[in-house]
Amino acid sequence: MTEQTTPRTNRTVLVLLDTPATELRSSALELLTIARGLGRVEAVTLEAPSVPTLAQLSAYGVEIVLQAELPAAVRGGDDAHLSPVVAEALAAALRLRDADAVILSATFANKEAAARLAHLTGAGLVIDATSVTESAEPGPELADAPPAGSLVAGKRVFAGSWDTSCVVRTETAVFTVRPNSIVPEPAPVAVATEVEGFAVEVSELATVARSVSREVHERAVGGRPSLAEAAVVVAGGRGTDGDFGPVEDLADALGAAVGASRDAVYEGWFDEFVGQTGVTVAPRLYIGAGISGAPHHRGGMQASQVIVAVNSDPECPLFEISDFAVVGDLADVLPQAAQVIREHKG
Amino acid sequence: MRIVVAVKYVPDIHAERGFADGRVVRSAEEGTLNELDENALEAALRIIESLPEDERAVSEIVAVTIAGPEADTAVRKAYQLGVDRGVRVSDDALAGSDYFGTARALAAAVRRLAEEAPVDLVITGMAALDGLGSVVPALLAAELGLGQLTLAARLEVADGEARITRELDGVTEELVAPLPAVVSVTDHANSPRFPNFKLIMAARSKTVEEWTLADLGLDPATVGAAGARTHVLAATPRPPRPDVELVVDKGEGGRALAEYLIRNELV
Question: How far is C-alpha A343 from the geometric centre of its chain's CA atoms?
Answer without folding.
Answer: 32
